[in-house]
Specification:
With 295 residues, this protein is α+β, with helices and mostly antiparallel strands. Among the domains are: 55 residues, Orthogonal Bundle (Helicase, Ruva Protein, domain 3), CATH 1.10.8; 92 residues, Tetrahydropterin Synthase, Chain A (2-Layer Sandwich). It contains twelve helices and eight strands. It has a three-stranded antiparallel β-sheet. A three-stranded antiparallel β-sheet has the order 4-5-8, covered by helices on one side. Helix 1 packs across helix 3, helix 2 crosses helix 3 and helix 3 packs antiparallel against helix 4. It starts with 5 loop residues before the first helix and ends with a helix.
Length: 295
């Protein structure tokens, strides 16, 4: 049996907003497995834990460009929110987005090798990145990017933390509304048929565990599980979501009215999937004092 520490309980509580004792019970049941403990809490507490677990903690900015029939999205990370307001950092993000749209580099290494000068640094984008690390005093990195070309496209940036690109045929205003909807509702796929199988199976396993607790007959449990999965698919597929500007119709219905077709969308949320290190300042000071005494 794995030892359940206070820091583990605190970490799980921070991810899920669940009561401390529930977090401890879940970790004990999961034998210290953090991911498994999160799923246990989802079964016990419903969607609240899952929503809180999706919070993003890493810092950085998303940049976007559309020019001459090509577009881009890029995420550039840094260590603190303070740097995301730095003019030099924001200029780097914008320049990287422009370079992606214009050159369509094969990977991050190819992106870094492109010609660019800023703040006296260069001659490549990677040289500028390294130079700004020294100037600002904080690490920063290009995390991911995508280039888009051919056909109509619109982009939307919600501040600097969320970026969306929508590829479409039809009305540009309707497509912009969809881009803002994506930023707000964060669908995982265009339609129910496009939702990744692993996400469906994860939702099904949670539904099975919750339905089993009802004590109802197997055939009723099966219907409950299928109902939960179908509800989930409607909630996470863009076309079936209630449109944010008019929740009396779905996104699909709105697009049909506007004679517009969305061919695809890309959503970047800063720090998505990145675990941010939580420094315990008091513990760090205590450790330094102990080391000084020993010295």
């Amino acid at each position: 049996m794995a030892a359940i520490t206070a820091s583990m309980v605190a970490e799980l509580r921070g991810k899920t907003d669940a009561p401390m004792m529930e977090c401890k019970k879940a970790l004990t049941e999961a034998d210290g497995d953090m991911a498994k403990a999160e799923e246990i809490l989802r079964v016990k507490l419903g969607s609240k834990a899952g929503k809180a677990a999706a919070r993003i903690t890493a810092e950085g900015a998303v940049g976007s460009t559309i020019e001459a029939g090509a577009g881009s999205l890029i995420e550039v990370n840094c260590e603190t929110d303070f740097v995301t307001k730095n003019d030099s950092f924001l200029a780097l993000v914008k320049a990287a987005a422009d370079l992606v749209a214009k050159h369509n580099p094969a990977d991050l290494e190819a992106l870094g090798a492109l010609a660019y000068e800023q703040d006296g640094f260069g001659p490549t984008l990677e040289d500028v990145r390294k130079g700004l690390i020294g100037k600002i005093g904080e690490n920063m990195s290009f995390r991911r990017f995508q280039q888009f070309s051919g056909g109509q496209m619109v982009s939307y940036l919600h501040g600097t933390r969320i970026g969306v690109m929508v590829e479409f045929d039809g009305d540009e205003t309707a497509a912009k509304d969809v881009a803002m909807h994506v930023a707000a509702m964060k669908p995982v796929a265009l339609s129910s048929a496009d939702v990744p199988a692993e996400l469906i199976e994860k939702e099904r396993s949670v539904a099975v565990a919750k339905a089993a607790e009802s004590g109802k007959p197997a055939d009723i449990v099966a219907k409950m599980v299928e109902g939960s999965v179908q509800k989930y698919l409607k909630e996470v597929a863009l076309l079936s979501q209630p449109f944010v500007k008019n929740d009396k119709q779905t996104v699909e219905q709105m697009l049909k009215e506007k004679n517009t077709t969305v061919k695809g969308f890309t959503l970047y949320v800063v720090g998505e999937g990145i675990e941010k290190k939580a420094d315990d300042f008091a513990a760090e000071v205590a450790a330094q004092m102990a080391a000084a005494k020993q010295g």
